[in-house]
Write a structure and sequence with these properties.
Layout lengths: L1 H9 L3 E3 L11 E3 L1 H20 L4 E3 L9 H6 L1 H4 L1 E6 L6 E3 L8 E5 L5 E5 L27 E4 L3 E3 L9 E3 L5 H6 L1 H8 L5 E10 L14 E11 L4 E2 L2 E2 H19 L7 E5 L11 E9 L2 E12 L1 H10 L5 E3 L4 E3 L2 E8 H12 E6 L2 E6 L10 E5 L5 H14 L5 E3 L5 H11 L3 E5 L1 H4 L11 E6 L5 E5 L3 H9 L4 H9 L2
Parallel strand pairs: 3-11, 23-24, 23-25
Antiparallel strand pairs: 1-2, 4-5, 4-8, 6-7, 9-10, 11-12, 12-20, 13-14, 15-16, 16-17, 17-20, 18-19, 21-22, 25-26, 26-27
Helix pairs in contact: 2-9
The chain binds glycyl-adenosine-5'-phosphate (GAP).
């Protein structure tokens, strides 16, 4: 994780928020490459799950909602974590996380020497187990108290109870609250889904692990409404669609590069299920911190629509033409975190390789996710004609893709820089491209394309670059593209 944090800062992926003031608690800023990577993940998710599917539509709702939304959803009453405070140093911990922390111990068997003991283990000198604050090792911890994770604010000019509002802790509720609007305006038939990608806020007690758990983050959520009276392949429709969404989401993460053996499904135990859930399955990823949740896929039944109908007094039903009856749809909810997906894609893409006795750091991003698609590099920056041609190629390609020009180092160094940020292709303009009149050598108009992963190179007429990158960035693999160019 430290390697990723440092690469992220050095190469402009992720910076600590308000760093010049010492940083703000567990919020992060995406830099020039991070913002490209993040928007590519979001765009591909939207394209695959919304744009390409006839049964999906999207919305973009506001972060501030009517406060009763959170009463109806259960967040005001249930969205809490148990916390304990140290009476001495005043640090606050999640009660269920304390035992997973290494702890500070002043050991009586060694004249009070201070030790840091691994989580869950006793002191090897005196055999004591942790009873005090794991951080200062001196204070007693309070009994657990429930702490609501929603950020509170005020709407309007008066700071009073009547104007309390909350920053949404999930994007999901807007899909339920807009169910009727979307159903009527788009004339939809069950099953159908509403998607949204946007910011959520949680005042997490123990955030951390870089962008894995933060207080402000983005979610990509889908609420997929199904008729609970329908059956598909002999099974209740909600159960069928739940399994379908689990498969589709898993396949999506694999398609964009996450290794098969770094992904697993984890079924929630009955005691762990959220108050609204009939069944929840997490897709876990083997993060640098160990196996942890990447996304969850829950069967929320008709809980939310019924709750909002009850609290708003509006009917939130669907008219089943076939059975001539109103039904409250069931909801299957694939809920992913964008920041967590980005961390997983980055961790999976990161490789350290040895090339001709030197270390090469490379981010093997899927080309669709890579922040920069092509880097155009002049072999000699002193030759005006080479620089002019390279810049013109960059400008032309940049009409379609994120393409950069760089002439600030020798070619080997420039390649390494692009490898380290995951740029799948480099284009090099050299003397042969433009010719050398002094030596009587004519221009061949060809440039070199270098593939990041194989480091192979092919020579291509500069005026065919648009078509070649159209193929390569559109999904054609390098070997096929190279063979096609070879065939002319
Ligand atoms: N609507 C259901 C819901 O919000 P969740 O499991 O609490 O479910 C869904 O959140 C996803 O959002 C998680 O799997 C995770 O990827 C992401 N997420 C949740 N809390 C987060 C946090 N504090 N920081 C970063 N990502 C978070």
């Amino acid at each position: 994780m430290d390697t990723l944090v440092s690469l992220s800062k050095r190469r402009g992926f992720v910076f600590q928020s308000s760093e010049i003031y010492g940083g703000a608690g567990s919020v992060w800023d995406y830099g020039p490459l991070g913002v490209e990577l993040k928007s590519n993940i979001k765009r591909v998710w939207w394209r695959d799950f919304v744009q390409r599917r006839p049964d999906m539509v999207g919305i973009d709702a506001s972060i501030l909602m009517h406060p009763t939304v959170w009463k109806a959803s259960g967040h005001l009453d249930h969205f809490t974590d148990p916390m304990v405070d140290c009476r001495e140093c005043k640090l606050r911990f999640r009660a269920d996380h304390v035992d997973a922390l290494p702890w500070t111990h002043y050991c009586p068997a060694t004249k009070g020497n201070k030790f840091t003991i691994p989580a869950g283990e006793p002191c090897s000198h005196c055999g004591a187990r942790r009873t005090l604050c794991p951080d200062c090792g001196k204070g007693e911890l309070t009994a657990p108290r429930q702490f609501n994770l929603m950020f509170k604010t005020f709407m309007g000019p008066v700071e009073e109870d009547a104007s309390i509002a909350y920053l949404r802790p999930e994007t999901a509720q807007a899909m339920f609250v807009n169910f009727e609007n979307v159903l009527q305006s788009m004339r939809l038939k069950l099953p159908f889904g509403i998607a949204q990608a946007g910011r959520s806020f949680r005042n997490e007690i123990t955030p951390g692990n870089f962008i894995f758990r933060t207080r402000e983050f983005e979610q990509m959520e889908i609420e997929y409404f199904v008729n609970p009276n329908d059956r598909v392949d002999g099974r209740p429709a909600d159960e069928h669609w739940h399994d379908r969404w689990i498969e589709d989401c898993l396949a999506w993460f694999r398609r964009y590069g996450l290794a098969e053996d770094s992904l697993r499904l984890r079924e929630h135990g009955k005691d762990e299920l959220s108050h609204y859930s009939k069944r929840t399955v997490d897709i876990d990823y083997r993060f640098p911190i160990g196996w942890s949740e990447l996304m969850g896929i829950a069967n929320r039944t008709d809980f939310d629509l019924k709750q909002h109908a009850k609290w708003s007094g509006k009917s939130l039903t669907y008219f089943d033409e076939e059975r001539k009856e109103h039904v409250v749809p069931y909801v299957v909810e694939p809920a992913a975190g964008l920041d967590r997906a980005l961390l997983a894609f980055m961790a999976d893409a990161y490789r350290e390789e040895e090339v001709r006795g030197e270390k090469r750091v490379v981010l093997r991003f899927h080309p669709e996710l890579a922040p920069v698609k092509v880097a155009v590099l002049p072999l000699l920056k002193k030759r005006d004609d080479i620089v002019r041609t390279a810049r013109a190629i960059r400008d032309e390609l940049a009409r379609q893709w994120r393409v950069v020009y760089d002439d600030t180092a020798a070619i080997g160094r420039l390649y390494r820089r692009q490898d380290e940020v995951g740029t799948p292709y480099c284009v090099t303009v050299d003397v042969q491209t433009v010719g050398d009149t002094d030596k009587g050598e004519s221009a061949d108009g060809k440039v070199t394309i270098r593939d990041r992963d194989s480091m192979e190179q092919i020579r291509v007429p500069a005026d065919r670059l648009g078509a070649v990158f159209g193929d390569l960035l559109g999904g054609q693999n390098w070997a096929e593209a190279a063979a096609r160019v070879g065939r002319g």
